[in-house]
Amino acid sequence: MAEPTLAEQLGAPLPDGIESLPEQHKQDLAAALRDARHRQAQALARAGEESLKYVPALLRGAVRKAVGL
Q1: Which of helix, strand or coil describes residue 44?
Q2: Does residue 10 sit in helix, strand or coil?
Q3: Per the structure, how many domains does the chain have?
Q4: Most buried residue, 16, 20, 26, 62, by most Cβ within 10 Å?
C-alpha cells in the first residue's frame, strides 16, 4: 500500500508555496507529518493510560471501554 501524499494527509489542496516545492521535499514533509501524528497518537495513549491512575481500580475497565482506550 502506498503512503498517503501530503495533500491526502491534509485533506485539502496544498497551498501554492508548498505545491511549488520539488516532489522529494513534498514527500519529506508528508513523512514528517506522518511521524508527528504517530508520535502524537502515542503520547495521547500514554496520557490516557496515565490518567487512569486517578480512577478507582474497580472502575478502570468500564472507564477504558467508555473512553475507547
Answers
A1: helix
A2: helix
A3: 1
A4: 26
